[in-house]
Design a protein that fits this description.
- The chain is an all-alpha fold.
- The chain is built from twelve helices and no strands.
- The chain has helices at about 10-25, 30-45, 45-65, 70-75, 80-85, 90-100, 105-115, 120-135, 140-150, 150-165, 165-170, 175-185.
- Helix 2 (about 30-45) crosses helix 3 (about 45-65), helix 3 runs parallel beside helix 6 (about 90-100) and helix 8 packs antiparallel against helix 12 (about 175-185).
- The two termini are about 35 Å apart.
- About 40% of the residues are buried.
Length: about 190
C-alpha cells in the first residue's frame, strides 16, 4: 500500500506532472501519489483522468473561496471514507470535503456524525433529550434517511439547520451545547 502512495515507479514525464499537481493542490508528493493511486485503483481511471479529478476538486475549493490545500488535505487524510461510504471516487470525496468546509466541518467530523446518527436508537434518544433541553422538536429521521442514501454532507447540513445554525448554538447554555455536540458526534469546540 505504501508503494502505491508515492511517485516512485512513474515515468519521468508522469512524475513531473504529478509533482506539479502536488504543488498546485497544496499537498506533498506523497499525499498526491496516494490520492492518485487510490483513485486509479477504485475507479479504474488512468493517471490523466485521476489527475483531472484532483484538479476538479481543487477548482471546486477555489470556486467556493476555500483554501485548496486544506480541502485537499482533508481528502488525503480521509481516503478510507472512499470505501467506507460506498467506493466513492476522489472527486466525490472532494465534493464532500468542499461541502463540509462550507459548513465549517471536516470529512472526519462528517464521518463521526454518520457513525453517531446511524446508531438509530441512541441517536433518537439524544434527539429527544435535546428536544427537551431546547423546548422544541429535534428529529433525526431526515438526517438518517439522507445518510442511508449516501448523502453524508446533506445529512450533516440537515441537523445543523435543525439546531438553528451558529447563532442558535451561541445562544444555547452549556448543557444544550453539550447535548447538541453529542448528537452530532463531535466535541463542543468542534461544533
Amino acid at each position: 500500500a505504501e508503494g502505491a502512495g508515492n511517485l516512485k515507479g512513474l515515468t519521468g514525464d508522469a512524475a513531473v506532472e504529478a509533482a506539479k499537481l502536488a504543488f498546485n493542490i497544496g499537498l506533498t508528493e506523497q499525499e498526491t501519489g496516494k490520492l492518485l493511486a487510490r483513485n486509479m485503483l477504485v475507479t479504474g481511471e488512468t493517471m490523466a483522468q485521476s489527475k483531472a479529478s484532483l484538479e476538479t476538486v481543487a477548482n471546486l475549493a477555489r470556486g467556493a473561496s476555500l483554501p485548496i490545500g486544506k480541502v485537499m488535505k482533508d481528502v488525503a487524510d480521509n481516503m478510507d471514507m472512499m470505501a467506507k461510504f460506498g467506493n466513492k471516487t476522489v472527486e466525490e470525496l472532494g465534493k464532500a470535503a468542499v461541502e463540509a468546509a462550507k459548513m465549517g466541518a471536516t470529512l472526519s467530523q462528517i464521518e463521526a456524525f454518520g457513525e453517531n446518527i446511524m446508531d438509530i436508537d441512541n441517536a433518537r434518544n439524544k434527539a429527544m433529550q435535546l428536544s427537551v433541553l431546547l423546548n422544541r422538536q429535534i428529529s433525526v429521521d431526515r438526517a438518517q434517511q439522507l445518510m442511508y442514501a449516501g448523502k453524508e454532507t446533506e445529512a450533516y447540513k440537515e441537523m445543523l439547520n435543525q439546531l438553528g445554525g451558529i447563532t442558535a448554538f451561541n445562544q444555547m447554555d452549556y448543557f444544550q451545547r453539550k447535548q447538541a455536540a453529542d448528537l452530532m458526534g463531535v466535541s463542543v469546540g468542534e461544533l
